[in-house]
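Posting this for the archive.
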Amino acid sequence: MDAPAATPDLFHALAAPARRRVIDLLAQGPQTVNELLPQFDMSQPALSQHLKILRDAGLVAADQRGRHRHYRLIGHRLREVRDWAARYERFWTSRLDALGRVLEEAEGAP
């Protein structure tokens, strides 16, 4: 059975290094924009835009607590990426195994 295809929005959201960094930070626990901001060399509005893209892709949710939004990771969405990439694991495994055999043979050659 084929793994489900991950949506283009999901890949778009993960394409930017800053958004991947946000995901890494939120994997440690919920944080506000102001808690995340010192980890980046960008303005608060720019970080908020990255968070919006992550929210739109379903990777991040925002919980309102008083005057602050606490962003949290929605980890199950990352499973779609893992499942998509897993389809290619056997391809890379077989290629790396073949490369290993070639290298072992080359070591044994005079």
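The helical segments are 8-15, 17-26, 33-36, 44-56, 76-86, 89-108. The first strand starts at residue 60 and ends at 65.
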